[in-house]
Structure formats: C-alpha cells, structure tokens
Amino acid sequence: MKRKTIIIIALVLIASSSAFLLFKPETISPDQIDIETGIVKKGTISSTVTATGTLEAITTVEVGTQVSGIIEEIFVDFNSYVKEGQLMAKLDTTNLAAAVEQTQASVDNAKAELEYQQANYERLAPLFKKELISQADYDQTVYNLNKAKASYKSAVAQHKRNLINLDFALIYSPINGIVLNRAVEAGQTVQASFNTPTLFTIANDLTQMRVEANVDEADIGLVKKGHRVEFTVDAYPNEVFEGEVTEVRLEPTVTNNVVTYTIIISAPNPDYKLMPGMTAETNIFVVEKKDILLAPSKAARFNPDPQLLMSYMQDSARPEMPDGAPKDDFPPMDAPAQDNNKMIWVKRDAILQPVPVKLGMDDDINVEVLDGLQEGDVVILKMEQKNANKEVQASGGNPFMPKPPQRKK
C-alpha cells in the first residue's frame, strides 16, 4: 500500500513539473519590445457635423420678357459683366410700333368725340335751365358726354399699355452682375402668352457666394448661426475653404422618409475659384476648444500586456504607484474608469507607470486632459514584441495548407 501511494505521489510531482515547464511564461528581452509613445501638448480639439451642399450666388436674377416677338439683337454673352440699366437684347418692334400707332389714332378719335359732346352739352345746358328744351333731350346730352369721356379714358389706357409693351421690347439688366446663362439666340421667337420666358440669368456678385447644405435631423440641433465651417470642392481637392453658418431654416425637407434641414453658409470667393453649382463637402465645427492640453486618444485606450510589461521592467525599477493603488508587484492592467477618470501609462526615463487622469472631449485622435498630466509628458500608445507575427508564422505555418507526403522508411 505504501509503495502504491509513493508511486502516485511521484507521478503527480512529475506531471506538475512537466506542466510548470510547459506553461512557464517565456521571458522576453527588453530589446525585443517595441514601445510607441506620444507627447502631451497643447492644441485644438473640435467636434464637427458633416453635410453636403451646393454653391450658389447670393443673388441670382432670371431676366425674361413680358411680350412675344422675335429676338432682333443680343448685346451680351455668357460671362459678360453688366451694369444695372444696360441694354442686353432687343426684340423686333414692328408689330408693337404698329399697335402704338393704332391706339394713338383711337385716342385722337375719342378726344374729338369728347370735345364735340362737351361743346354740345355747353350749348344745351343753359337752354335746359330756361326750360327751352325737354328733360329727355338734356339727359341724352349728359349721357353722350359721359360716354365720350369713358371712351377717351379707355383709348388713353390702351395706348399707354402699347407704349409700355414697346418699351418691353428692349431688355435691360436689372442689377450689376455677370451673365451666367444666355438661353436665346438672335432670330429666335419667344412667346410670353402663359409664362415669362427666361432669356438671361445674372448673378449679382461672385466674390461673395453661399453654400446651401442639407443637415440630417439628428445633427441639426447642434448647428447654430455663427459656427465656423470648412469645406472642399472636387475642383480643388487639396484646398480648404472657410465660411460661417448664417442661417438655419426651419422648413424640413423629406426625401424617402429622411428628414433634413437646410442651412446657409457664407463662402467668400475673392479669387473667383468657386463657381455656382459646385458640390461642397462641409465640416461644421459645432464645438471647438483651442489652446488646451491634449493627449493621443490611443493612450487612453492602452492597457499593457502583463508578460511584456514584466519583461520590460525586469531590469528597471518598479513603477511608482499612484496614491490609493494596491501595492502589488505590478499595477492592475484594467483600472476601472469612473466618469471621465482613467489610467494613462506614462514613461518617465526608463520607467513605465500608470497615472490617474481626468479626461474631457475626445475626437478619436486626441483627448482633452483636464487633470493628471503636464505638457511634455510621454505617454504610451502601444507595446508589442518585435517580429512576433513573423515568428508565429515561421514556427506554426498555415494549418490549412497541404503538407508534403512523408517518405517511407
């Protein structure tokens, strides 16, 4: 019985020793450990809302005609600069001039009739007062006079309308600006019966443009008038243009059950690089903090591998523990975060140590440091073993690749 017990104990000891030797952590030389670091420094952090919009001139006027006719002459072309009151085109005035002459004749006829009826009234009125003519004759005279007055006014009004139509045959620029579009050619007939045909499109001032962008309903609550905007256009992919939110419109736009709101962004264009109709990809800075202490966001997400940390620190002094931390051989790898409090690993000389910090805004690149670090501190971003992946591939190979056949002995 004693012999059997001794054999069992010996086997257990052998198995334990084998397991210890098999699973004993491999010691890694500090020279084989790569550490990526970053610097705590002051800078700017921001939160943005993206939107796509279209560039437009601030004031765009479509110039048309209120009369029908044939375009006789055109005095401007695409990209022509025009001044307010400048003659741009002229319609054929043959029919319009004839209509003016006709209504002028009607005016003259109505005036002659009015003068005759006025004179007739002035002769018969005294006779009626002396009761030398009947009431019926007097009433007829008054009726004829009033009818002549109405005919004269109607003829004058028609004549004025034909004069205005004759003036409409001359197309003048209503504003100072540049001709964006010319929609007609000389000799073309335009019809203004049911709507006003557009002949020219004029932009007032292309040095000051605007972007009309659509913002998703989930983000519109963040966008306010006065927010700074940066945008790019495909024509100049390496150039960033700046603007400012000048208007947030309340009317929603619903497209395929997606609700968006229109915002207006000022777009200064002193070099005339921007053109109407260009698509602008905008970044609206809804939160922007300047000259604050920043650390790389990767530092806040870094947790060292215990084996690599022990190997790296084996020849160095043990890390100094922050107040309140447990006094073990090494600090815990996953320190619980409370609110904005986190642990960031800092490298001071050759020593790595965790430092409790209070963090603020994070844009996934940098994070705002409210407390715990100072400008110039070196923080750990990544710790890994050199060529670890290559060694695994060399030793293990690909398990899915076919193996060569074994040679028979």
Summarize the structure.
The protein has 409 residues and is of the alpha+beta class. It has helices at residues 2-23, 94-129, 135-168, 297-300, 306-313, 388-396; strands at residues 33-39, 41-57, 60-64, 69-74, 81-82, 87-91, 170-172, 177-182, 189-190, 198-203, 208-216, 228-233, 236-255, 258-268, 279-296, 341-348, 351-362, 366-371, 378-385. It is rod-shaped, with a radius of gyration of 45 Å.
Strand content: 35-45%
What is the arithmetic mean of pLDDT?
84
By secondary-structure content and strand pairing, the structural class works out as alpha+beta
Low-confidence stretches: 16-24, 324-339, 390-397
Number of strands: 19
CATH A-level architecture of the largest domain? Beta Barrel
> Which range best describes the helical content: under 10%, 10-25%, 25-40%, 40-55%, 55-70% or over 70%?
25-40%
State the order of secondary-structure elements, H for helix, E for strand: HEEEEEEHHEEEEEEEEEHHEEEEH
Overall morphology: rod-shaped
Biggest β-sheet strands, sense, barrel:
6 strands, antiparallel, barrel
CATH class of the largest domain equals: Mainly Beta
Stated plainly, the CATH topology of the largest domain is called: conserved putative lor/sdh protein from methanococcus maripaludis s2 fold
- The radius of gyration computed from the alpha-carbon positions, rounded to a whole number of angstroms, is 45 Å
